[in-house]
Amino acid sequence: MPLKLIRNDITKVTCDAIVNAANSTLLGGGGVDGAIHKAAGRGLLLECMKLGGCKPGQAKITGGYRLPCKYVIHTVGPKWHGGKNGEKETLRSCYRESLRLAEAHGCESVAFPLISAGVYGYPKAQAFRVAVDAITEYLVTSDLLVYLVIFDTAVYQISEKLYGDIAAYIDDCYVEQHTDAQAERNRRMYGVESMPLASAPTAVPFIPEKSNEGTLLAESITAAFQITPEIPGERQPDDLEQALQQLDESFSEMLLRKIDEKGMTDAACYKKANIDRKLFSKIRSNRLYKPSKPTALAFAVALELPLEETKDLLQKAGFALSHSSKFDIIVEYFICHGVYDIFEINEALFAFDQNLLGS
Ligand code: ADP
Q1: For position 48, what pLDDT does the model report?
Q2: Does 323 or 157 have the greater pLDDT score?
């Protein structure tokens, strides 16, 4: 099952278990610990008093009391002492031990705060990275649904450089979109490719560059069927029959074909796409299944499709990439830069307040 980033107060998250970033006494404290005890009520403290504390990197479990979850898993993160005192390993252990405990108690969903990223002083971006790495590593062999809860908007930031690059790319795409729209209007109105309105002539008939209808029709068919015209010495496209078959191909069929072509297993693909196994089974068994856009794009990313193939796959689900949508532009940015790590893309989408990829 996938990892989902959500912005919320963890005491409001409905799932089987929430994780508390506790201190080693387990008797309550500030930050998320204080919020969890306050929302759960005194019963939680009474149960915690019987646990005999907890060491950093380990985890203990109690009931959820008045919280909307069955269990609270208490784990003690490392205090930050500069990063050379085993902090990272201890923090990874917090996630791993909490997830193990959750599974041992039959949980299907678990929500984590960013452990150690508050009073314990772990640099937030690093704490976030450790959390994502530790959780995704665990999910390779587990079907848990894990939420990473980001409470405070200031807490979470992707690197300034990446943020700046993406912001610039979004700007460029918006400008290009605007310029394209203008060029298109000019072309339709005046039959010219690009001309500022002020200098456009009042009426110029549009004369197609190629007036031979036969050539135009052949070109349209070629474009529609995506058949590359024959170029001597180049690898020839598959035959027409195959091209026609692919035209009728559904999203599900194209996805399964691409998985085979890439030599991936189904599980490797849906895990890399951060897609729930049950959703993948639905897509697999229903050839006409129409996924959501984030799901379709998540598969394109998992398959590491270049931009044109991404567009083809999206089209099968009835979608297109638009330069009027920040979500689309951000995903396009990563694909164009050859970055196919779904969590890296989701971090950026999250930073720009967009929907995330995956189910
Ligand atoms: P630690 O002592 O492990 O650093 P803190 O509670 O001080 O624990 O902070 C851990 C993280 O939890 C911080 O990123 C903080 O912003 C976040 N946090 C605080 N309150 C909540 C809450 N109610 N829900 C989710 N996260 C929270």
Answers
A1: 98
A2: 323
Do 180 and 52 have their domain in common? no
In contact, 292 and 327? CB cutoff 8 Å: no
* Atom of ligand 1 lying closest to residue 127 CA: 14
In this prediction the pTM is 0.74
Angle at 269 between CA 263 and CA 273, to 5 degrees: 145
- Which of 104, 135, 155 is where one domain is finished? 155
Q: Both 112 and 164 in a single domain?
A: no
Decide if 16 is catalytic: no
What tokens were used for 83?
């990063």
- How remote is the CA of residue 173 from the centroid of ligand 1, in Å? 37
Tell whether ligand 1 has an atom less than 6 A from the beta carbon of residue 78: no
- Are residues 285 and 166 part of one domain? yes
Q: Which atom of ligand 1 is least distant from the CA of 124?
A: 14
> Would the CB of 24 count as within 6 Å of ligand 1?
no
Cα separation, 346 vs 148, in Å, equals: 12
- Where do the H-state alpha helices sit in 199-265? 213-225, 240-247, 251-261
Per-residue pLDDT band at 165 (split at 50, 70, 90):
confident
Question: Counting atoms of ligand 1 from 1, which one is nearest the CA of 34?
Answer: 6
Look at the chain and report how many structural domains it folds into. Answer: 2
Q: How far apart (Å, rounded) are the C-alpha atoms in residues 185 and 2?
A: 44
314 Cα: distance to centroid of ligand 1 (angstroms)? 38
Options 9, 16, 33, 266, the catalytic residue: 33
91 Cβ below 6 A of ligand 1: no
- Greatest extent of the chain over all pairs of C-alpha atoms, in Å: 87
Q: How far apart are CA 217 and CA 203, in angstroms?
A: 27
Establish whether residue 11 lines the binding site of ligand 1, counting it when its CB lies within 6 angstroms of any ligand atom.
yes
**Domain residue limits at 318:** 159-193+247-359
Among 155, 178, 213, residue at a domain's last position: 155
